[in-house]
Amino acid sequence: MNFDSFFESVEDRGIVLSVSDSEYGGQQFLSNEALFQLPLICFIVLLMAKDKRKPKVSEVGRLVGESIEDGMPGFKGSAQHIGWSANLRVRTVKAITFLESTSLIDVNNRQGRLVITELGKKLIARAMERDDDLSYNLAQIARAYRNICVAKQLDLELE
Fold it and tell me: What is the pLDDT of residue 4?
């Protein structure tokens, strides 16, 4: 069921949800814990390993944080600096360990870079081909990662 057919079926059935503001007591914000879910981090690491600019393993935690900050509108210009979060870096290591143990990525020890496997390519392609929030947000994060890499390359050329 796609987005449009879902809302059409809700409208046809006359389903109504009543929401009272008094129950929640104000505005709710996402905490950093909401972003540090291993499946999301795994998808982001797969995106980076799939890109032609393979990230160094030592930089992946920072790159995941910077990509989230730049790619998700709620974190643009944020003072949280999640790229420096120790919690995010620990969970990124766990994500890399999981991805490597499930043969979705390989860590090239000689170069210290992530390499995506054929199985990993199939998984990320399947996630990206869907028409949903996950594929949209992953595309935004992939673009942010490419922009970070291009900016780094331009900085190196200026020096």
Answer: 82
Residues 41-58 have pLDDT tens digits of: 999 999 999 999 999 999
pTM for the complete prediction? 0.75
Is residue 48 within 8 Å of residue 145, measured between CB atoms? yes
**Encoded tokens for 49:** 């390993």
Give the 3-state secondary structure of the chain.
CCHHHHHHHHHHHCCCCCCCHHHCCCCCCCCHHHHCCHHHHHHHHHHHHHCCCCCEHHHHHHHHHHHHHHHCHHHCCCCCCHHHCHHHHHHHHHHHHHHHHCCCEEEECCCCEEEECHHHHHHHHHHHHCCCHHHHHHHHHHHHHHHHHHHHHHHHHHC
The highest-level CATH class for domain 33-158 is mainly alpha
